[in-house]
Amino acid sequence: MAQMNFGGVIENVMTREEFPLEKAREILKNETIAVIGYGVQGPGQSLNLRDNGFNVIVGQREGKTYDKAVADGWIPGKTLFSIEEAAERGTIVMCLLSDAAVMSVWPTLQKHLKPGNALYFSHGFAITWNDRTGCVPAKDIDVIMVAPKGSGTSLRTMFLEGRGLNSSYAVYQDATGRAMDRTLALGIGIGSGYLFETTFQREATSDLTGERGSLMGAIQGLLLAQYEVLREHGHTPSEAFNETVEELTQSLMPLFAKNGMDWMYANCSTTAQRGALDWFPRFHDAVKPVMEWLYLSVKSGIEAQISIDSNSKPDYRVGLEKELKAMRESEMWQTAVTVRKLRPENN
Fold it and tell me: May I ask the CATH architecture of the domain 2-198?
């Protein structure tokens, strides 16, 4: 385990050099890894584990997702089973269902978890708010987590490119004395580039805050606000979109992702420098109270309960599609359709 300096704070990090794939295979050589759920994270993690030489099976209800698993090479009755049978066969049960689905399937999984098994998550939600989810594991099993910092699609794509997506890891319960080894081996097995230490509570809280904040919720709100102001003051849709979204995503983001925001500030016009330096504190001061409000709403369990209540509604998908349709058909994102067509790589 390496100790690395992150902006003056020392943290524990595990790299593939320190924990090679051969070591992970040795640790898990007698394990049957049952991946439960083939939705968002399931395909990437299970396929990467399979390609890395681990003994993996998949548990999925029949339907379109089951058919996708078959198309990906999982064989019914051999490596593809019902959720119940996969959970029964597995010594490590990787619960990669959605948060709402975990709640409904938990009574079934619980029955099949045997002493010494490991219960694995890629999100701390179900355990952190188990007073709301009902997911309370028995004391005789390991409860562990590896949480890739990106989608299952990204995890798989980067694996196939010979790269790795960074992941956090945590041990909630060590019943066997092998929980940490199992966790790190699985983290390497699924294709993590490096692994950084967290807890279930910290991962769940930071994850929900990020999704509602700078990763999705806040960024859509910020982009829309700027776009609307430009449009309301007479700017055309193409100009408003290019100045709000296109330049950010196509030009600036790759640069400051690679070199840092200080580099970005140093390598723009003096007019942009002065304006950005003057205005970022104003945005910071305006937004931070909202972020604090958001964080407290997440930490208190309010956001978890909202998710549980809404995602459990039988008509959730219908309502979701209406919301997404409204966003998709908004002027800003319809402008995006035309702008994307004009990119040189699409001509």
Answer: 3-Layer(aba) Sandwich (3.40)
pLDDT, tens digit (0-9, with 9 covering 90-100), for 137-162: 999 999 999 999 988 999 999 999 99
With 0-12 / 13-18 / 19 or more C-beta atoms within 10 angstroms meaning exposed / middle / buried, residue 188 is buried
Phi-psi region of 9 (alpha: psi -120 to 50; beta: other; left: phi over 0): beta
The domain limits of the chain are: 2-198, 210-346
| Buried-exposed string 205-224: b where 16+ CB fall within 10 A, e elsewhere | bbbbbbebbeeeebeeeebb
Comparing CA positions, the residue from 65, 217, 201 lying closest to residue 145 is: 201
Q: Tell me which amino acid residue 131 is.
A: D
Q: Residue 260, exposed/middle/buried by CB under 10 A (0-12, 13-18, 19+)?
A: exposed
Q: Are 26 and 48 in contact (CB under 8 A)?
A: no
pTM, 2 dp: 0.90
Six-digit token string for 110: 């619980």
- Catalytic annotation, residues: 123
Residues ≥6 apart with Cβ < 8 Å to 216: none
Fold of the 210-346 domain: N-(1-d-carboxylethyl)-l-norvaline Dehydrogenase; domain 2 (1.10.1040)
Which residue spans within 54-177 are E strands per DSSP?
Answer: 56-59, 80-81, 92-95, 118-121, 142-148, 165-173
Q: Read off the tokens for 99.
A: 């948060």
- Tens of pLDDT along 98-143? 888 899 999 999 999 999 999 999 999 999 999 999 999 999 999 9
